[in-house]
Amino acid sequence: MKKMFDFSYINADEDSEIDLIIERARVVKFLIEIKSSTKVTIQDAQSLINYKKDFPDAQCFCLSRDANERFDNGVFFYQWQTGLKIIFDC
Q: Residue 80: which domain range?
């Protein structure tokens, strides 16, 4: 069965953006922050936390090169390869 996804982003201003929004069947499934860092913090995911209230059914992922996978303040922090596997295997 073919999975169909729609991709978009939000760039309200430089302090308020979502790098990637993934929808399936017109429902927002994932809000994603993308970082190139090997060490990310909850501050790196602040936009996700801010927008979560607007997309209550979406999962928030911060994808990076950080190998420390965790869940903090409603955000899943994954190494990017792991995060993509979770997202596209859903």
A: 6-88
